[in-house]
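Problem 12. The chain below contains 527 residues. Write out its predicted structure in C-alpha cell notation.
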Amino acid sequence: MQKNVFDEPNKYIQEIVTKVRIREDKLKKFKGKTMAFVFFTKFCDVQCSHCFFRSDNEGYDLPREQYEFSEEGFEKFMAFINHSNNGYLSILGGGEPFKKFEYIKETIKRAKTDRIVIVTSGMWGADAKTCKNMIEEMYEALCQRKTPTKVVLRISMDKWHIAKIGIDCIFHIIDVFKNFFPDKENFELQLHTLTGDDSIEKVMKHYPGCTRTDKKKYVSDNEEILKIGLYRYALQFPDGYKISVGIAQIFHSNLKVNLKNPNIDLEQLITLFDNDMKYNSFSNPSLVKNKNDEWGLDFLISYNGNIATWGNEQLYGLNNVYTDSYEKIISNIYTNIISYSLLDKGYFYRTQIISEVNPLAVLRSKAIHIRDYAGASILEENHTVLYYAIRVIQDYLEENILSLEELSDLSKELLNMIKSRKYIVKKWYENTSYSIIKQYMEKATFDENEWRDLFNLIYFGHYSVSEEEIQKGMQYYNMHASKPISKLEDVLDNSKEHYQRLTERLTFMKPEAKRLCMENYQKLGAI
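Solution.
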C-alpha cells in the first residue's frame, strides 16, 4: 500500500528543500538593484493600538537580540547591505528607529546604496532644539560619506500618531528642513499619511498660504527603483519650499481577525490586499522593478536578524544575519524551490496552488492584513507547504525546468507522489489525518501558552480542523496543561500578552541565531 506523504509532511519538506535543485543554466537570476526594508528595533514609545507589532517598551527575555539589533547584529546587517547591490534602503518604523539613532547615523555614513529612507513618527522632534540638533547630525553623517546617496526622512502622520504625540513635533521637523535645508537635493523631508485622514490639513492650516498639487495614483517616490504608492502629491509653501506627500491604503492589521464573524467584510479585506499586491508590488512582493526594467530582490530584515525576500518567510527554514553570510542567504533563497518559485512565478501563482487544497490558508494570510508576514501565514501548515512544493515540482517538470533524472535521489513514496496526476495528489492531501493540531503535537516540548493561542485561532476560524481533531487536541492539552478545558471558549484571551505571543508565532528568531546570541551572553557573564 502506498504511503501517504502528507501524514509526515515535515520529513518530505526537508527532503525537497535539501535535494531538489534547478540547474544553474535554467535558474533565473534577478540581478537588478535590490531593495531592503529593515527594523532596527521592536520597541516604540508611541504604542499605537492599530500597529500590528503592538510595540511597547516592557522588559523581555534574553537574549535582547530577539527584539532589537545588538552592535554585532547591526554590523552584520551592514555587511549584508553592502554586498547586496542595494538601490533603496528603508529603515522602517514599527519599532521607532530613532531609539537606535546611532545606527541611523552609521547607516547614513556607510551603507552602499543610492537611497536611504528613514520612516519615523517624529516624536523625537517634540523639543525644537533637540529636533534641530538631531537633523543636523544626520546631515553631518551624510556629508561624511565617500559615495553619494540621497537621504529621505519620512514622517508617518495620521490621526493615531497625532492623538498620541501631538503635532508640534511635526512642525518642528518641517521648520528645520524648511529653514536650514531647503535646497539640499540629497537631504529631503517627506510626509506620509493614510487614505481618508485629514492630518495634512492641519499642516496646511499651520502654514498660511500652503497649497497642494493634484494627486497622482500609483506613482513611485523615485525614478530608479520603482517603489509604488497609492497616491502622491506635494505641499507647496509660499517661499517655494515643497514637501512630497505619500498616501497609503489603510491596512486593518489583526492577527486574530474573526473569520467567522458575518459583520466583517472579508471581501473588502481581500480586495485591498490583492490590489496592493497587483499594483504596488507588480504581483511579486519578493522582487523590485528597476527603471531599466531589470528586477532585483526585495528584502525584509527583522529586528531579530531574520531575513527573507518579502512574502517569502518559511518558518521551518529561516535565514538570519547573526548566523548566515550574505552568500549563504542568497544561496538559500535560490536553491530552496519553495522560495525560488515565488521569485520566478509570483504571488498569485502561489495562492492559486494553495487554494486547490487549503483556501482557508489563503484567506487567513490576506485577512490578517499584514503584508510583512503574509508568507509566513500562508505557509504555516506543514502539509499545505508539502502540497505546494510537490505541485511546483510538477509544473517545473512540465516546463522542462526539472527532469525526473534530477529527482532520482528522492524517496520512492515522494517521487511516486510527484509523478501522480494533480487530482490524485489532491486526493492524497484530502485523505490525510494531518492537521495543525497534529503539527503542534509533534513539537519536542509542550508550551501551554502556544496551545492556548492556537485554540484561540481555531475558534476564530483560521484553520480547517474537524471536531474530532479538536477533541484530540484538547485531550492532549489537558494531559499536560495546568488547568484542563472542555471547550475552546475556555481559553479565549484578549490580553496584550496574548497578542504579543501571536506576533511571535510568525516572527520568532531563528533558533540557531537565538542560541548563538544566548551563548554570547553567557560568555560575557551577563546572566
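Discussion. The chain has two domains: 5-26+347-516, 34-280. Students who got a different answer should revisit the alignment rule from Section 12.3.
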